[in-house]
Design brief:
α2 runs parallel beside α9 and α4 crosses α5. It is globular and about 60 Å long. It is built from nine helices and twelve strands. By secondary structure, it is of the alpha/beta class.
């Protein structure tokens, strides 16, 4: 008795013409396609303790199936590259040779082929801010994540997370400004980091480096808006793109701008797996 081949899972339909053009270009020329992905909230579910964040269990298999069929996969994250590689379990995975991790908004880069990280010297303002934060945050119920090249103040554990977020936004901005840093707001987090790099710059630079013919970018938070803007700019210059929102009710801006909204990391993983199957 002959076996039957399982039907490929269906691809979701973008709600915009530009998004459909981006998806069509990716499918027509996968060898020049760049898949850009945020980590937290996109490949990994959001958790109260960022140190415990891990990629969705099906993320690596989906990426390993898709990566050999496209030009490159880039995980673009505010985390240190080393942490994203560890929490994503991306190292030494057959099929992920075309994966790079652009950590600290592109200031660091890990390449799966070499396993090496390249990065510039840290900004001196980060150390100064790190020293002053304990006094500023005393009694707030917040938690500080030390990212090495940046520090992030999480309010999700505070008695009233949103109130703590709003109350700290101005003083943290003042602190960052005094030391030559900027504040990047996110989902119950305020990150103090050096200026000049964001996910849009990182994505654009990498797309130019590899000569991408199409770009898909998936994110879930305010820090992903620059990457959305970068895809918009690439589309204006003739490179088709698809904007995917890893659905979140906390960040409506991404949902409104996205060409395609999926159901969190599970939906992102399903999209990646469907793309890999379609490109077989």
């Amino acid at each position: 008795m002959s076996g039957t081949t399982p039907a490929a899972r269906p691809l979701p339909t973008p709600r915009t013409r530009a998004g459909q053009e981006g998806l069509d270009a990716l499918l027509a020329g996968p060898g020049k396609a760049l898949i850009g992905l945020d980590f937290d909230g996109t490949l990994a579910p959001i958790v109260a303790d960022p140190e415990r964040a891990r990629a969705h269990p099906e993320a690596v298999p989906a990426l390993a199936a898709l990566a050999p069929k496209v030009a490159a996969v880039a995980v673009v994250t505010g985390r240190p590259a080393e942490v994203a590689v560890r929490n994503g379990a991306f190292a030494d995975v057959p099929g992920l040779e075309h994966l790079v991790v652009l950590g600290h908004y592109g200031a660091e880069r890990w390449d799966a082929r070499s396993g090496e990280i390249t990065a510039p010297a840290p900004h001196p303002g980060v150390e100064a801010v790190r020293a002053e934060l304990p006094g500023l945050l005393e009694g707030s119920g917040t938690w500080v994540e030390d990212k090495g090249r940046a520090v992030a103040v999480h309010t999700r554990r505070a008695p009233d997370p949103q109130a703590a977020f709003e109350a700290l936004r101005s003083p943290l901005t003042d602190l960052a400004t005094r030391h030559g840093l900027i504040v990047e707001p996110g989902r119950m987090v305020l990150e103090l980091r050096p200026p000049g790099m964001d996910k849009g710059v990182a994505l654009s630079d990498f797309a130019r480096e590899i000569g991408a013919g199409s770009v898909l970018y998936a994110g879930d938070d305010l820090g992903d808006l620059p990457a959305y803007a970068a895809v918009d700019a690439l589309r204006s210059d003739g490179t088709p793109g698809l904007l995917v929102c890893s659905g979140s009710d906390e960040v409506t801006e991404l949902r409104e701008r996205a060409d395609l909204v999926v159901d969190g990391p599970e939906g992102v993983v399903a999209l990646l797996a469907a793309l890999a199957e379609r490109l077989d």
